[in-house]
Amino acid sequence: MLDVLKKGGFTLLDVLKNKKVWIGIIMPIFIQLSILFVLIPAFKDMDSNVKELTVSVMNEDDNIGNQIAEELEDILPFQVVNTNDIEEAITDMEDGEYEMVIHIPSNFSTNIEEGTPELNYYINQAVAPTIKSSMEQAANEITKNVNENLFENKKQIMQETASSQLQGNENEIQNLPGDQTEEMNQMMGIIFDNLNVNTLKGNINKINNVEGMLNSIFPLTLFISTFISTIIMAVIHFQAFKEIRGINNRWGLFAYHQIVNIIAAILFPIASLTIISIFGVEIVSSTLTYWLFLSLAFWSFTLLTQMFVYIFGLAGEIFNALFMLFQVVSCGIIIPIATLPGFYKWISNYLPATYYSEGVYNLLFSGSSIKTPSLMLLVFIVVFLIIITIVVAYRKNIFSKRM
Fold this sequence. Notes:
Layout: H1 2-8, H2 12-16, H3 19-44, E1 54-59, H4 64-75, E2 79-83, H5 86-94, E3 100-104, H6 108-114, E4 118-124, H7 129-168, H8 170-174, H9 178-193, E5 201-207, H10 213-243, H11 250-267, H12 269-279, H13 287-312, H14 316-330, H15 342-347, H16 352-366, H17 371-394
Helix pairs in contact: 3-14, 10-13, 10-14, 10-16, 11-13, 13-14, 13-16, 13-17, 16-17
């Protein structure tokens, strides 16, 4: 190997003098720093920000139910809102106001005496997997804690009753032989210790439920594949339109570029619909609604990525990569928006992926209206088009090969 290098007539120093070699060395370091700088702050305070999640408590029992409702406000790490209508609370949960609805039925106290009390939990499945798992874990923990409290109360009542009965028959007990008295005390202890601690049943009702991990991760994979597709298309088309000859008017090229964008947006949903068909991904909306919304989302992402390429040339892809990371962590697909740090929560309002994720979850799971996310994506499309138009007006050589 050394002989070959010597015959080449150059040294390692000559190689290292090449700026592109150093760019290749430094770029991976820069990329990892950028990725970690974006991701770590978003995840860092997630556990402490769980208090920003909201749970609705609907209590219809005026006896023990009141006590449990008050205890839930004290022990739950979430914001607790008391509601009066279970159907309205569930509807509000589907609209994103609550992460879970806890229902204490009117016969709760009566059922405790009969040994069959129940608590009902309603958890929306049309949300990020982290929210679903957190709420199910919280529901199980609530059931466990209430069970333990009911057990201790029941045990105390029985002990007080037994003590009262024993005091009423104090003379008869004193006349019993010592070994029988000790045996009776041991038996009572065994009875108390063997009381069923799990008297309460927790019913977890999954609203908009779709079974399988595939359905849970599909919104995330759909977003990543959609945005990466627009990044690649932005580079290819930007280069392609520079090579087109016969059209010297930059406005003509710009107009054709936007027509091509619309054509690509119309055709793009074919890919995901094919995957949905092959792998059996469940979707509650109509195919046409899904097609139109995904086309709208692809169009907005396309204009976002092209905006940076128009402004910075191929270097704009660095901004596109960073924007993809910002959108992944701030749009609610992975981390609930309510638990994000302040900056990420603020920026989520100004990124199209936030409204894309809302619309996709509605299309795939709940079937709720996509009017608001669709309108917001249209607003982003208009804003991006205005910015790109200004760039084209300012840079007369925008489609020049020197750009």
